[in-house]
Amino acid sequence: MKAAALLLCVALFLSGCGMNTKLDSLTMTLTLGLDTDGGKLLSYSSSPVFNKDAKEHTEVIEVNASSLREGRYKIDLFASGRAVGGKIQNVVIGKALAKKKEIPSLLDVLYRDPKNSTTALLIVYDGPVKELMESKQKDKPRLAVAIKDLIMTTAVDKQTVKTNLLDFHRTLFDKGCTPFASEMTRKNGKMMANGTALFDNKGKYVTSLSPKETPFLQLLRKEIKPAIPFTLRTAALTGKKENISVSIEHGKVRYETRYRNGRFQFHVQIDAGVIITEKIADIDISKKQKKLEKMIAHEIKTKTTALVKTFQHHHVDPVGFGLYARAYEYDHWKKVENDWGKAFAAADVSVSVKAKVISYGVIH
Amino acid sequence: MAMTRIPQNEITIFQYVFFIVGAQIGIGILSLPADVAKGSGTDGWIAIIFGGVLSIIASLIIVSIMEQHPQDTIFDLLLRYFGKWFGKLLSLLFSLYAALAATTVVFTSIHLVQVWVLPQTSNYWIMILFMIPGFLAARQGVRILGRYAEIVFYMTLWMPLLIAVPLKDGHLLHLLPVIKEGWLPIIKTVKQTILSFLGFELAFLLYPYVKEKHLAKKGIIIANGISMAAFVFVTLVGFIFYSPDEITEYVWPTLSLLKTIEFPFMERFEIIFLAAYLFVLSTTGIPYIFTAVFGIAHVLEQYDHVRVLVVGVGLYIIVSFLYTPPFADLQAFSDWWGKTGTIVGYIFPVVLWLYMKLYQWLRGGKPS
Amino acid sequence: MWIPSSLAEVEATIQATWGETPDLVVCRLNVRQLKKDVVLLYLDSLADKNSINNNVLQPLLFETHDATNVEEVAVLIGQKKYTNLWSEVETAVFQGESVLFIDGEQQALLLDTQGWPQRAIAEPQVESSIKGAHQGFIETSGKNIALIRRYLPNRELKVKELVVGRRGKTKVALLYLEDVTHPEVLKELEDRIRMIDVDAVVNTGELMQLIEDNPFSPFPQFLLTERPDAAVSNLLQGRIVVVVDRSPSVMIAPMSFIAFFQTIDDYSTRWMIATFLRLLRTLAFFIAIFLPSLYIAAISFHYELLPLNLILTVGESREQVPLPPILEAILMELAIEMLREAGLRLPAPIGQTVGIVGGVVIGQAAVQAGLVSNIMVVVVAITAIGSFIIPNPDMSESVRLIRFPMMIVSSLFGVIGMAIGLMILVIHLACLESLGTPFGSPFAPVRFRDWKDTVVRFPLWTMRSRPLSAHPIQLKRQTKTRK
């Protein structure tokens, strides 16, 4: 014990060990932005400033660099503290960049260095990233918190998805599905969540889903909790242009996989329990429940089928049909696993939906 | 003033079980899911079960060897059967094997700490830090090590729960179909799991100290069973969370898995986990250090092993000043440990058993 | 040296032995019973004058029946002893007894007339209790043994008396239940006490340090208590109670680590509440050791551990602090320790002032001056409260001490250093013994049956056997009386 104490004393005085990373002297990147401007890679870092004398409590640094790691060294030149990435909350990538480059190669450092956070949200930004990074919104908290809150709450409403870096990595490397991420844009000077961005299996941006389509992607991915809300037109029922809002509270999504005639066949069976959340149309629900249910089922079916068509058109599979193909038709899967997007495009996908209204709310 | 009137350098059957479990669960488990996935994809867990069965068989042979001379450790036994010089040579080899194992564990632990938690701290500081508890524990006898292994086992029971948290984001589909590519790759992968199961060969040293000797066989089966369950559990969690194509991307998938756990008051659980995992690593490293030191002291006919321990700890610290093993060297260490472990843990018991049978048969069936 | 038979020689010897002793009373009188002269000798300050006047002098002077030898002398004292050794006379006088020398007799009569200044039995000061008895031990071993005997009117309760110290001649009594306590443990303790060779043992705490298993351990290995009920409860678990004369606390040995976190009130409280309180103490133990070091580790190494909101708060609160976290923490911890020590030895009214000054200085001024961050103040305050919850003062002090090396190691190595620190503690507790019994029991070695009475407390009727930590030879303590 004595020897131990002595050693520690020596250690304390030499203090050669343990390069402290003192919290208040760090420039902690909370939001990392990546964009392109004519062939240059622009890297933005937004970090909190802990100083009363500073007027702004957020520091934004822009550098252009060939890679993120190099970018960090350059950021260090500007930052008052040591730049670290352990607390990154959001990684915002400009759509222009995502279209041009495969983003996994850009993000490599975030995965390789275990000090970096892998739970940061991955967001595709429709527009120049600079305007987002430098935007100051008086009615919102710090940028990083504001972006994160925006995406998280919108994802609960199913109008966008919540993809962190690790999710992206998992879906990217899984040969049976392709990655996707949330998308943001700015409208009237305010930032807003804007559906889902889809990537191919190399991690290059392919297309986007609108906020209205995204709930059905979530449905197909069995991400139903807490509820999937959507609105449908009741023209078929009343003959008028009226709406009714429903939300899928619980449901079962089953996949059947077969391999016939040289291609995969998927059958998706959706059993949805919905509640009526808003009724603008003048319908007596209790009398026309069966009809209404059929209509909801039809709506879900149309939307999901259209969605799958979109996926097939772009050779992407964010739902993960490939997982089922691998699990149940391994031998055939093995032949196409390296080009699943193409095989999926050729597959037959059929959807059948049963809907059941379980509650009308507390008024008739 | 350590005046002990109730001296019993005995360990209970539970301490014996947890001593072996502690020695088995160590650095292997962190990379095991990726290792077996390389060999046989998501069927790797079957290979682990095979590896477990093999290690149970080997440990049963070890216990039946030791049963013949219940008061002997392996070092006494070797002297008894092989004469002074050859016996000592074999004892020395066994100790060197333990030293290799200890070195692998210690340097890998340091590497883990440097990569995951303290990237800027030099390895000799961490070595000095690690050697303090190492010395304090290894200078004691088997009884204290048994107690330590036992309490650490209970202290670390929360860890599987933490590892299971990411399961909610996983897909069971990843496991299907079972036995994708037939049995051949699975059988080939069994070799990968051997390193993880090593630790049962310490029964060679422990057996004479066990109080309830009639339970020794049952105990070692349970010990191997617990380790096997832990390995299969961690591997399955890894497979369910990561897709089969992705898991091989990671060096230590188990730790990467923990990075995603976030609670409102604390994030980045892999740091806490790794710090707590040092306890688990210590129950692997310290018994091997003890075995090596004890064996060498035995060969040198020193009654007290502490002097040898001081030299050993000093060597570790000096080496760490001069040499920082790169990751490739650590893997070479592991390979060597795996290879020599196969000899010491699996082949040596069989040969020894046959030799003893022959020896006793030549002497007219009586144990010497 | 023998006692001389002639009174003149006796008086000369007294003069030689006690030259300058103003409180020595030598009283020569003629006894009618014997028709002889006698000398009565006692120390005024240590003897009870009433008792001497009424029970000794009166019969000697006025009793008329005839006595032929020493044995027949009538005095109104139950405890009479005879001796012919001068050294015993000396000892007796210093114990407050009176000695009666009779002319022409080789034997002297020792009369128990002790009566030294002593305090009334009062409520224990340090270990107060809500439901336990309100009698505490005092400075007289006889009274203390009496307090214990009141709980255990049982012939198996044995008292073994030893004398320690060349000058002090302290009476040390070992109390134990003969059919429960392990004889080897008792022998060990007795041997250790016999081996002590010092001038005097002033307090039980000194005796404890002289016979500890490991003097280099930060933890106390024996328990000191001033509560008779706590002593009895431990006696019943097969432990030995050591009563040291002139000391108001008794020592209990052998001890286990967890027993330092239990109070006698736990057994009088209903089991759920007792369990909750014990869990709270366990938590407090870990907080008191680890919270400041965790704070240091998080601020200086692992900012990643903290969620974003907390980081922003901590960062803002630390912005002005010029000191590195370790110095900030040590500064505050030392301030708290100083305050505590200052308050401890001061008379109560001034002690309160210290509290106010400390509260204002630490709570407000230090933060406003930008010397420390307010989060640090919160951390230090919680830590201090945590260490106060630990019921045993010795253990509480140990915990406060361990905190400092923990803080240093965590400022060097972060959580890794904390883990190694904890590892060293665990190894140390696994090695530590108390009278040769494992100190860490029932955790190291693990004895599940004894976990009923550790950080949890099972209902009393389920604890049917005595804990194994003291190696009791009689395990069963009660039968199953309810389901």
Main pleated-sheet profile of chain A: 8 strands, mixed
What integer is the average pLDDT of chain A?
Answer: 82
Percent helix among the residues of chain A?
A: 25-40%
Identify the most extensive interface between protein chains. B-C, 45 and 45 residues
User: Count of helices of chain A?
Assistant: 13
Strand content of chain C: 5-15%
Strand content of chain A: 25-35%
Classify the helix fraction of chain C into a percent range. Answer: 40-55%
SS field, number of helical segments of chain C: 14
Question: Could you state the oligomeric state of the chains shown?
Answer: heterotrimer
Distance between the termini of chain A: 77 Å
Number of domains of chain A: 2
Envelope shape of chain C? elongated
Main beta sheet strand tally, sense and closure of chain C: 5 strands, antiparallel
Order of helices and strands of chain A: HEEEEHEEHHEHHHEEEHEHEEHHHHE
Task: Note poorly predicted spans of chain A.
Answer: 12-18
What is the N-to-C order of secondary-structure elements of chain C (H for helix, E for strand)?
Answer: HEEHEHEEHEEHHEHEEHHHHHHHEE
Mean of pLDDT of chain C: 88
Membrane topology (chain B): Multi-pass membrane protein
Subcellular location (chain B): Membrane
InterPro entries (chain B): Spore_GerAB (IPR004761)
Keywords (chain B): Germination, Membrane, Transmembrane, Transmembrane helix, Transport
